[in-house]
Design goal:
Length: about 210
């Protein structure tokens, strides 16, 4: 028997919102992309950033990193001082898909994002499309993050939806595989066109007229 999808849960960064620390650090290192990549792979790493996404304060995260690499204090502080500049724009075709889903009025639409509780209000203010979602679970607010099982279970309970009737969409394959382990049908987002095709194949999105 085919599953009936009644709820769709979207990731935000990389699906709808472009976010690029590299842009800030290429500028900080006078156009030296190699140095910027080294810095982000070695010092202000994604793993470090994810600890803030999981609830650690920006002040605490910055302090710990400066203690570890005092010679890079200026560049470490730039990470959150210039955080707004890392928001590089919107993925408009993805937003178009979201608006089409909303206009069909056949599915509940939610979001589950790994995002610091301190910086998420900036996105809410900047991007009106976020109002389309009935509810958004922000990892930093609930002190847990993808890909750990508890945030998926928490989100299902918070949204009052069942795993068997839910579709999850994320650009990070790690997060997609984790959702599948929780019994949630999932799509690994690569491009808006690919997502559109997969949504149509699942009979979740109507064909364009």
């Amino acid at each position: 028997m085919e599953k009936k999808i009644t709820a769709i849960v979207f990731d935000l960064g990389g699906v709808f919102i472009d976010w690029s620390p590299l842009r800030v650090y290429v500028e900080a290192f006078d156009g030296d992309k190699e140095k910027a990549e080294w810095f982000l792979n070695t010092i202000c790493t994604m793993e470090w950033n994810e600890a803030q996404d999981a609830g650690r304060s920006l002040v605490e995260g910055t302090k710990l990193k400066i203690e570890e690499f005092p010679q890079y204090e200026h560049f470490i502080r730039l990470y959150y001082d210039k955080w707004e500049d890392m928001l590089t724009g919107l993925i408009d075709d993805s937003i178009d898909l979201l608006q089409r889903l909303a206009s069909q009025n056949q599915h509940q639409l939610f979001a589950l994002t790994n995002w610091s509780a301190e910086t998420f209000p900036i996105a809410l203010q900047r991007y009106p499309f976020l109002q389309i979602f009935e509810e958004i679970v922000v990892s930093g607010k609930v002190n847990m993050r993808k890909p750990f099982p508890e945030i998926y279970q928490y989100s299902l309970q918070q949204f009052n939806i069942a795993a068997s009737n839910t579709l999850f969409i994320d650009d990070n394959l790690r997060n997609v595989e984790a959702a599948r382990k929780e019994g949630i049908e999932s799509i690994h987002f690569v491009t808006p066109t690919q997502l559109e095709q997969e949504l149509m194949a699942l009979n979740v999105l109507n064909f364009k007229h």
